[in-house]
Structure formats: C-alpha cells, structure tokens
Amino acid sequence: MPRFLGIDPGSRICGFGIVERAGSTLKHVANGVIKTAAAETFEERLKMIYLGITEVCQTYTPHHVAIEKAFFAKNALSALKLGQARGAALTALSMAGFTVREISPNEVKQSIVGYGHADKDQVQKMVERLLRISSLRSQDASDALAIAITLSNCQEFYLKRSEGAKGREL
Known about the structure:
The chain is an alpha/beta fold. It has a single domain, classed as Ribonuclease H-like superfamily/Ribonuclease H (Nucleotidyltransferase, domain 5). The chain is about 55% helix and about 20% strand. The protein has helices at about 40-60, 75-95, 105-115, 120-130, 140-170, and strands at about 5-10, 15-20, 25-35, 65-70, 100-105. It has a five-stranded mixed β-sheet. Helix 1 (about 40-60) packs parallel to helix 2 (about 75-95) and helix 3 (about 105-115) packs across helix 5. The chain starts with a strand and ends with a helix.
C-alpha cells in the first residue's frame, strides 16, 4: 500500500502524520510532533526539526510526501521563523530523496471538509472520522494527517501534472 507523509511545519512544534491508502480505504499509520525547546537557540531548534523529520522518514518509510505551503503571516518575524523551519524540514526530505509536494492550507481544508475556509476544529473532527480514530491530542499532528490525506486523495492528479511538465521540458 502506498504510504503518505504529511508535515505541518513550525519552529516550536512540527507535526507529522502518516496514512496508507488501499483503493478508497485510508489507514492511519502514525502521527506525532517534533517539539523543540524554547530555551534552545534557533539554530538548535532547526537542527532538531531536521533530525526529527529524518527519523520519521527512516522509521515509517513513506512513498510520497507533502508539506504545508507557507502562508502570509501578520508578524514578519513569525513568517521568517516558519520559513526557516520549513527549510529545515524540506532539506531533510530532500536529503532522504523525496520529491515534496506543497499543499496550501485552503487546499487541505477543501479536500478534508469540503470548504476552503473551515476552522481547525472542523478539520480535526473530519480527520478523526476519516481515519476512524478517537480524539487526536495534537492540532499539529491532526493538520499533518490532513495534509497526508489530501496528498493521498490528489496523488494521481499530482503525478499527471508532473508528467505533463516533464513533457513540456523536452
């Protein structure tokens, strides 16, 4: 069964979620968070994200990976830190040999809830329902599972789009 890894990046908490798909059936494999200590230097926190993502990839051996696309933040410093955390995660994924899909928060919400502006609680409840699991403890892990589900739902589209792009490069 193809295994899908979703990542919800953050500089303090980076969520990950893994699902498998067999036809139309989704199976929850794992979810969790990589927590960094606020007392650590920012460089050390980025290193922890890199190492944590590397460990997740080695432990669960996903076939396909997606990360949440950056969004515009009200606070420039927060946006910068999020971008650096995404960079650490993307570097770990690239070093592991993955082609990473970037999925916007609205795409995830549309895929999971059917409404691109759904709130986090609605997304979490649908993730729990789709994967038949009772309450998820972490919003970050729930978001990461939603990204993995969205990737699994759209994988055929992404493959066709990348094949079309390759054909245009010739």
